[in-house]
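dumping this here before i forget
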Amino acid sequence: APPENSSLHEGPWKKIDPNETVLIGDSLIHGGYGRSFYRGTGLFRSYVKKFFKGGRSIFTMRRRLERYCVPAKAYIVGAAANDIASKRRSVAKIEREFLRIIEIAKRKNPNAKIVLLTLHGDDFRGYTRRPGVIQKMHQLNRRLKFIADRDPNISLIDIRGEILNAESNGKKVLYRDRLHYNGRGSRGVARLLKDYLARGKHGRLTDYI
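structure:
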């Protein structure tokens, strides 16, 4: 069965196009699904470095968003992959940055749809070799769900669950490092996100690859 999206949005969903959307994140967007998501819009080149770039922390993302944020109908936040393993960055600190990003987006468009993506990387060596990081990731994902459940304009897409489901069904969507998307994964995630923006719901990642 298609997954349930963590959201309270009510009434008919109004279609949102990629050219009405800002992606916020790091290399998972920059070297991953960002190019496929923005294909045909001309926005990838103008948005890269402003809103997403490899190696970027969520703190840098928030500062860049404060400087460059543009009005949009939707903001998709796929962030914190570079923060979760840091001892200096607690779940509480990272959560505050998510909330600040949401606040910045809402200042530009109070009615914007904001889509949060769960973190993944259960078998990424950069996480597994550091005690407690996987638990920290799960804790942050729970906090993101809590944020989404409280606001009708915020949704949570469980990308981690979609990746696990795809790979358990023989569909490899990650590179050997077990964190970054391969070509199939990049295209699949982009299609899933575009479908969600078009309909207010999505199928399984395996439906798009």
